[in-house]
Amino acid sequence: MADTRDEQIKELSEELEDRDTRIGQIEGQVQEHDTLMAPFESTTSSPWP
Questions:
Q1: Averaged in consecutive runs of 10 residues, what is the pLDDT profile of the chain (49 residues)?
Q2: Can you give the pLDDT at residue 49?
Q3: What is the dihedral of CA 37, 39, 44, 49, to 10 degrees?
Q4: What does the pLDDT read at residue 2?
């Protein structure tokens, strides 16, 4: 029983690491997009104040 639990914990830890890595990649893409779009967004009018 302890082996099964330890294995589940290990698998969940690996899954969390994978998700954390993916989140980091997505955050990097968003930051890159924001950097690329900033010059265009500052020249367009916005309907919001």
A1: 90 98 97 86 62
A2: 56
A3: 90
A4: 74
What 3 state SS string does 22-43 have?
HHHHHHHHHHHHHHHHHHHHCC
CA distance linking residue 15 with residue 8, whole number of Å? 10
Torsion angle of C-alpha atoms 8, 10, 15, 19, degrees rounded to 10: 140
Q: Could you tell me the two tokens for 45?
A: 């009018």
Q: Which helix (H) or strand (E) element contains residue 6?
A: helix 2-41
Residue 49 in 3-state DSSP? coil
Cα angle at 12 between 2 and 10, to 5 degrees? 45
